[in-house]
From TrEMBL:
Keywords, sorted A to Z: Methyltransferase, Transferase
Transmembrane segments: none
GO molecular function: S-adenosylmethionine-dependent methyltransferase activity
Gene Ontology BP terms: methylation
Organism annotation: Desulfobacter latus
PANTHER family per record: 2-METHOXY-6-POLYPRENYL-1,4-BENZOQUINOL METHYLASE, MITOCHONDRIAL, METHYLTRANSFERASE
Annotated InterPro entries: Methyltransf_11, SAM-dependent_MTases_sf
Protein name: Class I SAM-dependent methyltransferase
Stretches assigned to the Methyltransferase type domain: 46-132
Top-level taxon: Bacteria
């Protein structure tokens, strides 16, 4: 990962999403991600860049086998406080996951791809360890709200100042270059970032609204073609003497004689 959250950033992360309007947007984002994942009891899910565990918390009571990985020890400390022993937490980077091929059903990247210095490699690794699907949640670089954030970040730096935002087309192009033509499904949410309430939440759930390319948050589901990391095998040979007695059938004939 290109940007690793320090102690202060880890503290500010939870505080940021606890605010009224930010919490409303976060709830919409998690709702979209959950709809794409379609969680089921017994399924194994890896959250790549799990941060403080906010993105894992909605799934802990659904009977899933959950694992989280993050490069920041401070973020993992916060995640351990929030999730306890209900999630298996690891420290590591998205570009080199310490897991075997296809050992998870789902790999999730929620607000973490933006902080990778090699996003294509991170997606490739996610597709390697995921057997069924990879779900990506990123902030849309062309959404009006995020454009304002980027301009504001020049004068008042925050965590978004370190993020590389993506568009729907940029993500799809990168996925095609890595995997070729594979099934990809996407939707967006937070179409009205400056409004909140029950009515707005219902409007945000309308499928036609979520097909907009200008929503502040993009949710994308990928069905990866299985790929495997191959390792050279050491072949062991045994030197046999030329005049060594044969085994098996020939040995049986000698006994009869």
């Amino acid at each position: 990962m290109a940007y690793e959250f320090d102690f202060k950033a880890a503290q500010d992360y939870d505080a940021f999403f606890a605010k009224g309007r930010a919490k409303h947007c976060f709830d919409l984002e998690i709702k979209l991600i959950s709809a794409l994942i379609r969680p089921m009891s017994g399924k194994r899910m890896l959250d790549i860049g799990c941060g403080t565990g906010l993105s894992l918390e909605p799934f802990v009571d659904l009977g899933m086998n959950l694992t989280g990985i993050d490069p920041s020890a401070y973020m993992l400390d916060k995640a351990a406080e929030r999730l306890g022993c209900r999630v298996d937490l690891h420290r590591g980077s998205a570009e080199d996951l310490p897991f075997d091929d296809n050992c998870f059903d789902t790999a999730l990247m929620f607000f973490s791809l933006e902080f990778s210095n090699r996003p294509a490699k991170a997606i490739e690794e996610a597709c390697r360890v995921a057997r069924e699907q990879v779900v990506i949640g990123v902030h849309n670089r062309y959404a009006p709200r995020n454009m304002i954030r980027r301009v504001k970040g020049f004068f008042f730096p925050d965590m978004y100042s370190h993020a590389h935002l993506f568009s729907v087309w940029e993500l799809k192009t990168m996925i095609t270059s890595i995997l070729g033509t594979v099934p990809v499904k996407w939707r967006t949410t937070v179409q009205f970032p400056f409004l909140s309430g029950r009515l707005i939440s219902k409007v945000e759930s309308i499928r036609m609204i979520q097909w907009s390319c200008w929503g502040s948050f993009i949710g994308m589901r990928i069905k990866p073609v299985p790929k495997f990391r191959t390792r050279p095998l050491v072949l062991k040979t045994r030197n046999c003497k030329i005049n060594e007695p044969a085994t098996g059938l020939a040995l049986g004939f000698r006994k009869e004689e």
